[in-house]
Amino acid sequence: MLFLDIVHTGLASVLLHRLRSLVCVLALLAILLPYLTALGLSRGLEAEAESSARLGADLYVAGNQFGRMVPLPPDAEARVKQLEGVTRVVPRVVGEVFLGKDHQRAVLLGLPPSQFPAWSSTVEGELPRSGSVNELVIGTTLAQRLNLKIGSMIPPFYQNEQGERLSRVVGLFKANAPLWQANLILTTLDTAQAIFAQPAGVATDLLVWCRPGYEEAVARSITWLPSLGDQTGRGPVRFQVTTRQDLLVLLPQGLMHREGLFNLHFVLVFIIGILVFLVVSGLGLGERRREIAILKAMGWQTDQLLLRGVVESVALSLMGACLAFLLAWVWLRLLNGYGIAGVVLAGVGVMPDFQVPFRLAPIPLLLGFVLAFVIVGTGTVYSSWRAAIAPPRDAMR
Amino acid sequence: MDARGVRLLLVLLMLVGVTAGVLFFEARQESVRQTQAEEFQRLVGGMGFGPASDWEDCPFSFDPRLGGSCGLNSGPLPGGSCFCPRHAESIFSYPALQPQHYPAQEGSSQ
Amino acid sequence: MALLDTHALCKEYRLSSGILIRALEEVSLAVERGSITLLTGPSGSGKTTLLALLGALDRPTRGTVRLEGVELTRCSDVELARVRRRMGFVFQDYALIPNLTAEENITYPLIPRRVPPAERRQRALELLQRFGMENRLRVRAGSLSGGEQQRVAVARALAGDPDVLLADEPTSSLDAETADFVCAVFQEFHHAGKTAILVSHDPRVVALATAVYSLRNGQLVPPPTAAPTASA
Questions:
Q1: What are the φ and ψ backbone dihedral angles of B56, each rounded to 5 degrees?
Q2: Is residue B102 part of a domain?
Q3: Can you tell me the distance from the alpha carbon of A96 to that of C156, in angstroms, rounded to the nearest whole number?
Q4: Is A6's CB within 8 Å of C111's CB?
Q5: Residues C45, C216: contact at Cβ < 8 Å?
Q6: Is the pLDDT of residue C102 over 80?
């Protein structure tokens, strides 16, 4: 009963010192809101990057010349296909193109139409087919910037000795698809080869799927394959393999870099934290000291006064952490990471044209609460303790 | 019980409740988003891994599979990775792809 | 045995300028159980300091204060809190918590005394009714007039049903009628066999005293005398 009564007075204390509580919660928001928002965004990106590695091909095979990645000649696909353990090989063309009068940069991806499903929930409209017109599926940022809709025709934006063709937008990626669709153009392999003026069969990389357990053996076999012939007159082309494991190894290292930048954020948090500490322990200190002295004179014990301070700190920290979390959610879900998405994601403007990836999990919220409690609790409990151990008459002066 | 205490307790409970609701909602949304991500990745055969939404200046930041390293990365100079505008813009930065198991010499010696 | 007694009590303060102030020097006195002890003397003579030392609100520089033979200077924090719960204080500046209501100012000291919430509220209501302030129950103490604050302070001191009441100028801000009423409350408290230690220049309060100690420059002068109008 006594415990509950003291808890109630601790809660009431938050409302008794309104200015102090308000400044405290605002300072906590200044610390926690950018932290939770940026962490949510980077965790969302991390999840999507993991999907990209996990759901892609087992191996990515590209050409290598002079230590650089180069396209693979037409016979590469056949040579990889014949290796033991390989179940499927899909040639792919990926390159950069420029669209519109402002030379809007786009990533063009060409895949054999046989690889496309009949319908995809990430695409509004249809998937591209081979034909007399280049059929394209356009990303959300491109569609927005070039004002393209399904059915829009795009005049030739490339040069090819065999002639250029009109392009038609047959589909648009949906905004909730991963961010890499934003500037992507998906088309058929032959269309991509034509746009890049490459002969049939040339691919920038091969997607290779293997029988379970054969990935490493196949990767080794591909690396050991003899160099490809000198078809371009620039010397032999070696095979270069990227495995799923190679990608997944990068992920924690990318996260380490993120952690480094979050450490910078924590330096900022530390600086603001000191300010909060000063505010918490200094704002209305005289009034607070006197209040504690009066309660002490009336028979309160030091431990009871400290419990009251702890409850007050828990309430303020909980309020700060929950509000920061909810505002982070509003920022990411309703405002789509306005302003902050460009800090975490490169090439993204103030207002992203796609749904920013984010993941708000309970652990960062809990960490935010603990951090808030450490800062507020230290300020409150320390100043309460200082006042409580002094003789009441001294503290009342 | 103190009326002020009750008021604040109600506000706190409401905040915690709404926060828990948002967490629950996001957990459900996560599966929707995951489905979209899976479908997209299956469609394009695995595309994108880095923090960039395009490959201007640095294909590596868009997808390390398209360029094994960033050409503008001047690490290990302090801040050297930030010479690449794409790296300077994002808080995610990958080191160069290093296929561990198969040195180039082995391939060429066969 | 005296309820409270002091022996060679000294209290010194050092000002920020470094000057040493001797607020009390070698004060030895005894407060008998059931008495109304009056501390008198000119301003700055050490009355309030002595009252604070008797009420375990301050620690002496030298000397001892004993409550029922127990030396307060040797008590732990918890024991001192227990001692303070046996006492009721009326401070010269009222020492109310300005952000709390009149009711809360009275009920908060009852929390460590483990008085149930309903009873706390009931006691606060009864006391404020007695002091004619039932309509000010939920008014912030900071918004009350000086006289009202003093009445709340007296009510707060009595709420815990203390064994000893220590009051510093308890009628200074009250009108004659209310001061008479407060004196009657003290009288009633005394009739219940309880002890009061008062600091006052108010003749009405002086008239209640059963023992008087005069202080000058922190020293007792002259030796204790019996009050001429001892009551009860």
A1: -55, 130
A2: no
A3: 81
A4: yes
A5: yes
A6: yes
Alpha helices in C91-192 (DSSP H): 102-107, 117-130, 146-159, 176-191
Identify any residues that bridge with C89 across adjacent strands, giving them in sequence order.
C166
Would you state the structure tokens that stand for residue C151, as one six-digit string? 């009445």
Q: Which domain holds residue B31?
A: 1-47
pTM as predicted? 0.84
Cα separation, A243 vs B99, in Å, equals 8
What are the pLDDT digits (tens) for A178-196? 999 999 999 999 999 989 9
* Domain shared by B32 and B73, yes or no: no
Inside any domain, residue B109: no
Is B110 among the domain residues? no
Does residue B3 lie in a domain region?
Answer: yes
A47 touches chain B (CB under 8 A): yes
- Interface residue A298 vs chain C (CB under 8 A): yes
Q: What tokens were used for A327? A: 């505002």
Question: Given A17, A298, A302, which is nearest C109 (Cβ)?
Answer: A298
Whether residues B54 and B37 share a domain: the answer is no
**Residue B107 pLDDT exceeds 50:** no
How far is the C-alpha of A349 from the C-alpha of A341, rounded, in Å? 8
Nearest CB to A344; choose among B68, B91, B107 = B91
What are the residues whose beta carbons fall under 8 Å from the beta carbon of B46, sequence distance 6 or more?
A52, A53, A55, A56, A57, A60, A207, B65
d(CA A305, CA A387): 10
ipTM (interface pTM)? 0.92
Count of the separate structural domains present in chain B: 2
Indicate the pLDDT class of residue B93, thresholds 50, 70 and 90: confident
Across residues C194-199, what is the average pLDDT? 96
